[in-house]
Amino acid sequence: MLPFHDVVADDFSEVNDLIIRQLYSDVGLVENIGHYLIEAGGKRLRPLMVLLCARALGYTGKHHLDLAAVIEFIHSATLLHDDVVDTSTLRRGRPTANAEWGNAPSVLVGDFLYSRAFQMMVAIGNMDIMTILSRTTNIIAEGEVQQLVNAKDPDLTEAGYLQVIEKKTAVLFAAACEVGAVVAGADASTRKALSQYGMEVGIAFQLVDDALDYKGDAEALGKNVGDDLAEGKPTLPLIHAMAKAPGADRELIRNAISQGDASQLSQVVAIVEATGAMEYTLAAARAAVARALEALTALPDSRFRTALADVAEFATGRNH
């Protein structure tokens, strides 16, 4: 775990235990795949943000633990579905669930995790929370479909790209923070500020992820470098590189995107670097972090707010 987890270490331990308990099923394959995915670890930033936001607002109950588990289940369900859609074979340094068990079980267990998440949120009985999370899952699904539509389209604009990452990735960060505020009884302006904080952190994380696909180390990332190019995903490093590169280089990237071809990855990386596209992408991430930190001023000063600021800063200072 990272240092900012330590601030809510006891809560986090309880959430991990709760997640394992809530994976129960009479069907062994459901538990096997669920445990395989959850036990792979990861940074667990989304559930962490629920805990930190609730505690930053003085919450002393237990529902934030349930909500943290709900957020992790929703996120895990999207990962299962994503890996099938993207035909991914490696995640967090291990074979993906679809590589181990096949596509059909992965999709169906993803559905199980979604439905278990909704069972848990219904048990909490807060209509605001149910509204936020039902809207969020709908937006995520819409973002996934839009990303699929955008695949192999070298003419995608920067605005179109940002719209997708807000829907596909950042909205769940925003929801995690907002439900933490709701369960703590925060007023509307505080809820809005924390939702904005989460949205900006989510944007920063996705921007850095997309940059690392052309700069990172496969072992540190836990996934194959160049996967985005092989899937024909026009991410910001490529969009900016095409806008700045001379004709032949621009056409090389356009063809790589339209064909979903990573065979010339080294040449693409060189163009991305030469056009300043990597720095442009990372600068966009740093700008999002600055907006996130500004939104945090809505919270009273505390070790929990400091940890939230550290999470935001971590977004741009990582290699995985």
From TrEMBL:
Entry keyword set: Magnesium, Metal-binding, Transferase
Keyword Metal-binding belongs to the record: yes
SUPFAM superfamilies hit by this protein: Terpenoid synthases
PROSITE patterns: POLYPRENYL_SYNTHASE_1
Regions annotated as coiled coil: none
Top-tier EC class: transferase
Enzyme Commission code: 2.5.1.-
UniProt cofactor(s): Mg(2+)
GO molecular function, one term: transferase activity
Entry keyword annotation includes Transferase: yes
Database matches in Pfam families: polyprenyl_synt
Family: Belongs to the FPP/GGPP synthase family.
Protein name as catalogued: Polyprenyl synthetase family protein
